[in-house]
Amino acid sequence: MLARLVSPNRGLAVTLAAWMLVPPAACAADSSVLWKIVSGKCVPHEQTAGDPSPCSAVDLSHGIDKGFAVLKDINGVAQFLLIPTARIGGIEDPAILAPDVTNYWQDAWLARIYVEGRLHTNLPRDGFALAINSVDARSQNQLHIHIDCIRSDVRQALSANLDRIGGVWAPFPVPLAGVTYQAMRINQETLDGVDPFRVLAEDTQRSGDMAMHTLVLVGETFPDATRGFVLLDDHADLATGDRASGESLEDHSCAIARK
After folding, report:
1. pLDDT tens across 176-221, in order?
2. Do you find a cis peptide bond into 54, omega within 30 degrees of 0?
3. CATH code at 67?
4. Cα-only R_g, the chain
5. Tell me: the pLDDT tens digits for 219-243?
6. Burial class of 51 by CB neighbour count within 10 A (0 to 12, 13 to 18, 19+)
């Protein structure tokens, strides 16, 4: 849970300046850029001055090994990243399945307020997508969950097929951004007690080679008026050009906020 939410715009100029000092080519070459920003700037600033800049928030309420930071991404009008303050490589890292691990997805869902702060508007529950890419579709080797607007076409496809999504993994009826995803329904309004990483890992038919998976979480209100989530999973298939980039289901221009 986010212990302290600072203003979504606090430190934003510093955040962008910090990112802009790192050229895109350097970001691609240095897979530890995110880790250096969080561990070398955001956490020390929070600990010494109570100021998380260049991040928008740093939560160390349960200790640095279980904390996280929220950072504005250089890409997109309102995209934010939730990044652990512990060194965790990515979706393939065994640390994400430790018995007492932080549910980073729950904290990322709460951190969607930063997206709304940048947009200066509130979005409906199904206006957000949270995503983590596979090892082949990422440039950074520090776990980070993308928090941003959902693509309008993806939102429409989900809305039209909500009644066909059940409580177990099954192929989603239509491709999303050209990719066939597996989908399942989470029947609760929050992620309290439900960690998408563990949901994937505990399905023995789908959990092999976690590094090649991408997960996308979308908030939904189902036809029976209950609130929950749709969890989407894709496994990379490099032979077909599918790198398992769930981030591709997000719209970094946030067109849905203008409709």
Report:
1. 999 999 999 999 999 999 999 999 999 856 657 899 999 999 999 9
2. yes
3. 3.30.428.30
4. 17
5. 999 999 999 999 999 999 989 999 9
6. middle
